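To the wet lab folks,

You asked to see what we're planning to order before we commit. Fair enough. Below is the target structure as tokens, and below that is the sequence we designed to fit it. If anything looks off to you, flag it before the synthesis order goes out.
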């Protein structure tokens, strides 16, 4: 960031705001970081699904060794429902997020050049025409807000899936303790 000193009331130099190039660079970096975070939530969810499904095999072995008739127990039926729900919640993290652009940009009239809601409604010539009178800073700021919204949604979904994992393993422990004396 460039520093342009100007004297303040006390005669000390103060910093002026960032230049337009610095603001654009900041917005581009914010977009790149937010996109990376969104992709990392998707990757974490995929890895969590695989790890969670693989953890079921030893868990099933423990439950059937505690009680040979565990498969016919209502406790295990609830456990299986919790398993499916947890897997679906991790899958929901990966599911695309739909946007409500008007709410996200705080009333800014953006052209929607980064996030095109319906590409079938826009031809190449229309898109090119919109680029001619583009206000890049506002478009990048709007894109940053949209990506932050997507990141927040995916974060909330991932946290919900993690809570479901805790409930699943808590129920698995309860099922094991109750089925010990089968």
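Sequence we intend to order:
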């Amino acid at each position: 960031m460039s520093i342009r000193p100007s004297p303040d009331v006390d005669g000390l130099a103060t910093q002026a705001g960032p230049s337009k190039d610095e603001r654009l660079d900041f917005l581009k970096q914010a977009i790149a970081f937010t996109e990376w975070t969104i992709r990392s939530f998707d990757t974490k969810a995929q890895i969590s699904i695989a790890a969670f499904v693989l953890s079921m095999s030893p868990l099933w072995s423990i439950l059937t060794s505690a009680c040979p008739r565990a498969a016919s127990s209502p406790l295990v039926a609830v456990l299986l429902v919790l398993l499916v729900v947890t897997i679906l919640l991790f899958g929901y993290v990966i599911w695309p997020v739909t946007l409500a652009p008007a709410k996200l940009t705080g009333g800014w009239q953006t052209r929607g050049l980064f996030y095109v809601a319906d590409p079938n409604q826009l031809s190449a010539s229309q898109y090119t025409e919109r680029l001619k009178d583009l206000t890049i800073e506002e478009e990048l700021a709007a894109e940053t807000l949209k990506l932050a919204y997507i990141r927040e949604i995916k974060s909330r979904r991932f946290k919900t899936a993690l809570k479901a994992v805790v409930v699943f393993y808590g129920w698995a422990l309860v099922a094991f303790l109750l089925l010990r004396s089968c």
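Structural context that might help your review: The first strand starts at residue 6 and ends at 7. The chain has a mean pLDDT of 81.

Thanks,
Computational group
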